[in-house]
Amino acid sequence: MTGGGLEFWGAVIAMAAITYLTRALPFLLSARSRLLRRLAEGSSLAALGPALLAGIAAAVIVPDVMALAGPAQWLPYAGGLAATALAARRLGNAGVAVITGVAVYGVLLALAGHA
Fold first, then answer.
1. Domain of residue 89, residue span
2. Cβ-based neighbour number of residue 97 at 10 Å
3. Residues 34 and 72 in one domain
4. CB neighbours of 106 closer than 8 A, spacing ≥ 6?
5. Are 36 and 30 in contact (CB under 8 A)?
């Protein structure tokens, strides 16, 4: 995401608030809370946190990807995405998959001469 204007900082603050709420809300609610039961595993709202984070990631990444000029500039993004998907499928651990994807993205970006 490029720029330093009001829109940029608004997006950063919104992402921070949403991420904080998805992480802190279960600790702020009592164990008997109806909202907590609705957010628990097996509920239709259980995917709310990951869905919000995926939406935020798309809003941040898509404008950068749309600005890419040639196929050579797509390689770090495609490689990182493929590495993340493969690691998630093979290892079954989302945290390790994200770290793997970021590492592959960084290596491909450095090899392309953008770092």
1. 68-115
2. 19
3. no
4. 115
5. yes
- Residue 51, both tokens: 């869905």
Please tell me the pTM assigned to this model.
0.55
Give SS3 for 83: helix
Same domain? For 82 and 100 the reply is yes
57 contact partners, CB below 8 Å, separation of at least 6: none
Please check whether residues 72 and 86 belong to one and the same domain. yes
Inter-residue contact 30 to 40 (CB < 8 Å): no
The letter for the amino acid at 47 is: A
Q: Dihedrals φ, ψ of 114, to 5°? A: -95, -15
What gap in Å lies between CA 28 and CA 91, rounded to an integer?
Answer: 32
Q: 61-109 pLDDT, tens per residue?
A: 788 778 877 777 888 888 998 999 999 999 988 889 989 999 999 999 8
